[in-house]
Amino acid sequence: MAKGYRASKVNPQNTVRGNQADETIIDLSEVKTSAEHYYSAHKNTILGIAGGLILLVGGYFAYKFLYSEPRNKEALEQMYQAEFLFEKDSFEMALNNPGAGFPGFKEISENYSGTDAGNLAKYYAAICNLKLGNYQEAKDFISSYKASGNIMPIMKEGITGDIQAEMNDFEGARDSYKKASKVVENDFLTPFYLKKLGLLSEKLGDNSTALEAYKEIKNKYPESPDGNNIEKFIIALEK
Fold first, then answer.
1. Residue 102 pairs with which residues in a beta bridge?
2. Are 146 and 119 in contact (CB under 8 A)?
3. Which of its termini does the chain have fewer beta carbons within 10 Å around, N or C?
4. Which residues contact 7 (CB under 8 A, 6 or more apart)?
5. Boundaries of CATH 1.25.40.10 in the chain?
6. How many CA atoms lie within 13 Å of 212's alpha carbon, on the beta-carbon side?
7. Contact residues for 4 (Cβ-Cβ < 8 A; gap 6+)
């Protein structure tokens, strides 16, 4: 190598990175230009969609806070008298005419549909009709009732079973009691409906299902009211 000549130290990696940086700059520039052209060409559509979303979200909150929640509050206030009579087993009055200008559960369920209170009125109306012997009406109300939480899904299935039993649909009632015992676990209600399942299964001659239900009560819910004397039901079937 000639004196005074110094080999240049070129790092291939730096060259590659440099090229990539240039390409990146070009790519970003192209993307930006394309985006600007796209926005210009579709400006009205984009603004329309954005405006529609704003209206949709705004409409939802307006419906909830200015319409739905006030109606629900009003329905709860209107339902007070019917609930009072329901607690006193005055089912006919609670259902149709609580007096003092207040509506019954049936009217509340119709006039305040779409509210939580209107939905709850359907549950009350189902029980009132069941107690009054209006089984088809009771079935219609409980079918349209939307149950949520840890208790009401159990109650819906259980009451459905009671209605079906009153209508002599014993197989349907048994299925409903089974659902009530499985839909959500509850230390009080689950053994309650397991026992109903067992008793009805015995009535239908299905002792194996009855025994299974009774043993589940014994093993899982021995301290429940229905677990206290469940042993005698098991012994009777194992004889």
1. 99
2. yes
3. C
4. 1
5. 148-239
6. 9
7. none
Positive or negative CA dihedral for 195, 143, 156, 98? Answer: negative
Question: How would you class 89 by CB atoms within 10 Å of its CB: exposed for 0-12, middle for 13-18, buried for 19 or more?
Answer: exposed
CATH architecture group of domain 148-239: Alpha Horseshoe (1.25)
Q: How far apart are CA 82 and CA 97, in angstroms?
A: 8
pTM: 0.73
188 φ/ψ angles, rounded to the nearest 5 degrees? -100, -50
Q: Which two tokens stand for residue 53?
A: 């979303």
- Condensed to tens digits (0 to 9), the pLDDT of residues 68-124 reads 688 899 989 999 999 999 999 999 999 999 999 999 999 999 999 989 999 999 999
**Letter string b/e over residues 226-239, b meaning 16 or more CB atoms within 10 A of that residue's CB:** bbeebeebeeeeee
Handedness of CA 165, 179, 130, 187 (dihedral sign): positive
